[in-house]
Design a protein that fits this description.
The structure is a single chain. This protein is 45% helix and 13% strand. The protein is α/β, with parallel strands linked by helices and 438 residues long. It folds into two domains: 3-198, 3-Layer(aba) Sandwich (Rossmann fold); 212-429, NAD(P)-binding Rossmann-like Domain (Rossmann fold), CATH 3.40.50. The strands form three sheets. The protein has a six-stranded parallel β-sheet with strand order 3-2-1-4-5-6, sandwiched between helices. Strands 11-10-9-12-13-14 form a six-stranded parallel β-sheet. It has a two-stranded parallel ribbon with strand order 7-8. Strand 4, helix 5 (98-110) and strand 5 (115-119) form a beta-alpha-beta unit. Helix 5 runs parallel beside helix 6 and helix 13 (283-306) packs across helix 14 (334-344). It is elongated and about 70 Å long.
């Protein structure tokens, strides 16, 4: 059993803390938010993540997991400290590292013996070396070593990804650090999860390269769906055929209203900024970011055509506010841009989401929030599906026609059967499957 501190209890930090405790370590989660810390110690989650609550409660009950705001007490008793704080974008797209810097300052001040610092936060190339220099410059009393161990957790599937990862990437330069991390991740090693050992800069760049490539893949299939709309092709069959090619793979080939979340938008901007700082052309990544914003804007443009360019005073039922299903996270969600644009057009919004309405209300307090999708559709001139929640895959078309005023149905996630929707009298459009699309 190792004593481990995890600084930051957001989506990444909390999953890491819970997972490491479940591996048999004694873990202290650290955060500056008093309210969050109190809730966590009571076994209450600050966000929605399937399966996480059970692990949280079990490990608190076992005595292996606790939470504190007092970093000065957590550091001295920990031989390993995981950094999982945010690296939000600045105005120019570069990563803001102030939370990381304040964390390592605290480690330098309070560490009393050899401490291994494991960076889970997504950081630009060179950050970990700079943090090491910062620690040495502060004259830390203890020996402190930094390694890079990027995370690849998907919101909505984070527990599955932590306990059954595709690989573990570790950028480390000493045998001592390697031995400690092998010991911490022994359960995964025994499960024959591949470990990729590399230099620190390589580990830092792996995370950005991975997210940028996946974002590019999403953007590509979105643009292909837009083209399929115009020429009467079927994007579902196009994507299926592409996915059968072993060089491409079937994942991330589902068209939609644009990607969002806490990672892809932020990371591609940071990668582009890093390229600029080193004088390297990252034009493809920049185009992906711009194309993704255009994809979000396209949603309202399509609605205008479907509603004969008359939006002012109409009522739209928006189904889905989270950036993806199985999460309550609305950061960079396509719904943010779409609803903002609809409000500018004078649209009345009635919205529903199974998990994300409370978070969305903080940003848009004045729109109407409904307890169900059907409730949102009452009196609506059009229905707009933005998030791929399973409950939206089985909408009752007959009931929808009874409660709606209009008959426009824009399905940006391709959840519904076009034939059945049209049989019920809907003017139905999706992304790239329709032969008479907008």
């Amino acid at each position: 059993m190792k004593n481990i501190a995890v600084i930051g209890t957001g989506y990444v930090g909390l999953v890491v803390a819970v997972g490491l405790a479940d591996f048999g370590n004694r873990v202290t989660g650290v955060d500056i938010d008093d309210v969050k810390i109190a809730k966590l110690n009571e076994g209450k989650l600050p966000f929605h993540e399937p399966g996480l609550k059970d692990y949280l409660e079990a490990n608190i009950e076992s005595g292996r997991l606790s939470f504190t705001r007092d970093i000065s007490s957590a550091i001295p008793k920990s031989s390993v400290v995981f950094l999982a704080v945010g690296t939000p974008p600045r105005r120019d797209g570069s990563a803001n590292l102030e939370y990381l810097e304040s964390s390592v300052d605290a480690i330098a001040e309070h560490a009393r013996s050899y401490t291994l610092v494991v960076t889970k936060s997504t950081v630009p190339v060179g950050t970990n070396r700079a943090l090491g220099k910062r620690i040495r410059a502060r004259g830390a009393a203890a020996e402190i070593e930094i390694v890079s161990n990027p995370e690849f957790l998907r919101e909505g599937r984070a527990i599955q990804d932590f306990f059954h990862p595709d690989r573990i990437v570790i950028g480390a330069e000493s045998e001592r650090a390697r031995e400690i991390l092998v010991d911490i991740y022994r359960a995964l090693k025994l499960s024959e999860v591949p470990f990729l050992w590399c230099g620190i800069e390589t580990a830092e760049l792996i995370k950005y390269a991975t997210n940028a490539f996946l974002a590019t893949k999403i953007t590509f299939i979105n643009q292909m769906a837009n083209l399929a709309d115009k020429v009467g092709a079927d994007i579902a069959l196009i994507a299926k055929s592409m996915g059968m090619d072993g060089r491409i793979g079937e994942k991330f080939l589902h068209p939609g209203p644009g990607f969002g979340g806490s990672c892809f938008p932020k990371d591609i901007r940071a990668l582009a900024s890093t390229g600029d700082s080193f004088g390297v052309d990252m034009s493809l990544v920049k185009i992906v970011a711009a194309a993704n914003e255009e994809q979000k804007a396209r949603v309202v443009a399509r609605l205008k055509v479907l509603l004969d360019a008359r939006l002012n005073g109409l009522s739209i039922a928006v189904l889905g506010l989270a950036f993806k299903s199985n999460t309550d996270d609305v950061r960079e969600s396509p719904a943010l841009r779409v609803i903002a644009d609809l409000l500018k057009e004078g649209i009345l919004i009635r919205a529903h989401d199974p998990q994300a309405m409370d978070n969305f209300k903080i940003l848009f307090p004045d729109i109407s929030y409904c307890d169900s999708g059907i409730e949102a559709m009452k009196g609506a001139d059009a229905v707009l599906i933005l998030t791929e929640w399973n409950e939206y895959r089985s909408l009752d078309f007959s009931l929808m026609r009874k409660v709606m005023r209009g008959k426009v149905l824009l399905d940006t996630r391709n959840l519904l059967d076009p034939k059945r929707a049209r049989e019920h009298g809907f003017i139905y459009r999706d992304n790239g499957r329709s032969t008479d699309s907008v």
